[in-house]
Amino acid sequence: MVLFVIAEATLLSSLLPSCVVAREVFADPPDETVFPGEEDLVARAVSSRRREFVTGRRCARLALAELGHPPAPIRPGPGREPIWPAGVTGSITHCAGYRAAAVARTADLAGLGIDAEPNEPLPDGVEATVASPREGERLREAAAGAPEVSWDRLLFSAKESIYKAWYPLTRRWLGFEEADLTIEPGAGTFNALLRADGTRIDGGPPLTRISGRFTIGPGLIITAVTVDR
Ligand SMILES: CC(C)(COP(=O)(O)OP(=O)(O)OC[C@H]1O[C@@H](n2cnc3c(N)ncnc32)[C@H](O)[C@@H]1OP(=O)(O)O)[C@@H](O)C(=O)NCCC(=O)NCCS
Q1: Cα separation of 103 and 145, whole Å?
Q2: For the segment 147-160, what is each residue's pLDDT rounded down to a tens digit?
């Protein structure tokens, strides 16, 4: 059975504090209507991109409704990041078989990032681009204990989550080589030391490290990070 219900996010919520509202779904609803005010954003998109965009934004609006925000277009900023209503931070992810969004009040959290990936090894050659040799060694150690998890993909997802929290707070690029990631497989957590200028536009303390959590779903790796105020 295909599940179209956009539900309270069981997988994602397990990774996030209770101040975060998350919504997730494992397939696209049949109605692909683009929300008014967002049509231009996918006017020339292929249908797979249009579907993930529409469903991701639906998840986001349902989560925003829980925070008391009426439905409104969610436009992208200059770095393609979603522009949230004033006083809100959030993140969107989509991959084959999964779409989700998570939002929180900036009174509770400065920022957050979420990412989902298939639990499959990265394509040949990609690990060398996203992981340092030292990180690669740690991935091999993790794989020895739990070979059913694609740890290279998990590292990639963790770094994508980190970037989604990093960029809106710094408005700066962060390269894969600028985050040194350590995964704690047993705890379901990861920590990254960041070697870039982490000065925040909200006046908060500079971002020098970001921690997050991961979970393994049906064929999926899901990661999430939060940044305190
Ligand atoms: C932006 C990026 C992180 C998106 O991740 P992805 O795995 O390709 O795709 P996902 O489906 O999970 O997420 C896409 C969503 O991310 C969000 N996003 C895009 N750019 C963003 C940014 N600069 N900041 C925050 N969120 C962003 C958008 O909501 C987008 O969905 P939408 O276009 O439908 O609104 C990725 O494409 C990228 O550019 N990575 C390079 C930078 C990086 O990761 N550095 C590693 C630092 S350790």
Answers
A1: 34
A2: 999 999 999 999 99
3-state secondary structure of 126: coil
Return the residue whose CA atom lies nearest to atom 25 of ligand 1. 164
26 within ligand 1 shell (Cβ under 6 A) = no
Do residues 180 and 192 lie in contact, with contact meaning Cβ atoms separated by under 8 Å? yes
Domain segments of the chain: what residues? Answer: 7-114, 118-220
In DSSP notation, 179-198 reads: EEEEEETTTTEEEEEE-S--
| 151-170 helix and 133-145 helix, angle to the nearest 10 degrees | 130
- Taking the CA of residue 157 as reference, the ligand 1 atom at the shortest distance is 7
Could you tell me how many residues make up the chain? Answer: 229
Judged by DSSP in three states, 220 sits in: strand
The pTM of this model reads 0.97
Residue 4 is predicted with a pLDDT of 62
What's the pLDDT score for residue 153? Answer: 98
**Regions of the chain short of the pLDDT cut 70:** 1-5
pLDDT of residue 1: 46
What's the CATH architecture for 7-114? Alpha-Beta Complex (3.90)
Q: What is the arrangement of strands in the sheet containing 88-95, beginning at the earlier edge strand?
A: 7-8, 21-25, 98-105, 88-95
Residue indicated by tokens 């609006």? 61
pLDDT of residue 30: 87
Query: Rounded to an integer, what distance in angstroms lies between the CA atom of residue 157 and that of residue 153?
Result: 6
* Tokens of residue 92, six digits: 């969107």
- For atom 17 of ligand 1, the residue with the nearest CA is 81
